[in-house]
Specification:
Shape of chain A: elongated
Order of helices and strands of chain A: HHHHEEHHH
Largest interface: A-B, 27 and 27 residues
Strand content of chain A: 5-15%
Oligomer: homodimer
Number of strands of chain A: 2
Mean pLDDT of chain A: 93
Chain lengths: 141, 141
DNA sequence: TACCAACCTACCGAACTGATAGGTATGGTT
DNA sequence: AACCATACCTATCAGTTCGGTAGGTTGGTA
């Protein structure tokens, strides 16, 4: 199940994309528009800035802006960063302890295929796909 | 993420299917074969008996057996019973509070399609599909 | 009657979730 | 230089879930 971390991060990025006018956008504005707790967003965003998905600027006139065009963000990338991973079962997580029963496991193939399906699905959707078409696309980033 | 509840239930049902010889199989035997804690399994099974996926018999010579042929159990049904639901986000759960932002939600369609994909995938796989073909299919249910 | 296995209920520690609180760092504006 | 808005950092917390244990009760067979 996707938690609020991933869902809120998506909403923030979509909001930043839709309200992009070249300037930095204070997270306070995004939080108000999206009706999300500012302080909680501040705890979610660091992973996005550290991975250069957004750029933060301190002080007056500061805020955040996207570092790429909206079509260059896949939902898969965002969810993997904020949720950790999209594995349906713990034994498929990147650094999971190797399962002793893997050789005889009747379900491993099923989980693996579902995992691939999930990644393929979310990697095929970008922030641009999620933006309201009438808004935001008119602006130059 | 699918928890042990769903994964263990699947393993129990596959084990019952593979070791079916017409008699009731004590859960103690399944727990030993699968290396799962018996007491924990006893807490997971009631939802399967209440929904008539398996039949339990008390006392000596008792245990559990499947109530259908293995090809009549879909993984989707089993996971929905044991995990509650397969919704990727809380707003898609059956009795979720209606979301005030649904009309303007940029991501609802994405989640809904993923939800449908998930259900379709797991509903397309049966216990029979997961059984080791050399074993179990020789027995008559 | 003895036994065995399903079944039921309470409890428990650890982790995760969804926050809140209170600060510090950093830059532009005045 | 002072001010102030904003990002950024760390600790804390109540509630829930997870994975499991413990101990008993019910019901059926041998």
């Amino acid at each position: 199940m996707i938690s609020t971390r991933g869902r809120y991060a998506l909403r923030v990025l979509i909001d930043l994309a839709e309200h992009n006018d070249g300037k930095y956008i204070p997270m306070k504005d995004v939080a108000e528009r999206q009706d999300l707790p500012l302080k909680y967003l501040e705890r979610i965003l660091p992973v996005l800035t550290k991975n250069k998905l957004i750029v933060g600027l301190h002080g007056k006139g500061g805020g955040y802006r996207l570092s790429r065009t909206p079509d260059a963000y896949t939902v898969g990338e965002i969810l993997r960063l904020t949720e950790g991973n999209l594995a349906p079962v713990s034994c498929l997580e990147q650094d999971a302890a190797p399962c002793a029963r893997a050789a005889e496991c009747r379900t491993l193939e099923m989980w693996t295929k579902f995992y691939e399906m999930t990644n393929t699905y979310f990697d095929g959707i970008t922030i641009a796909d999620l933006m309201q078409s009438e808004v935001g696309n008119d602006y130059i980033i």
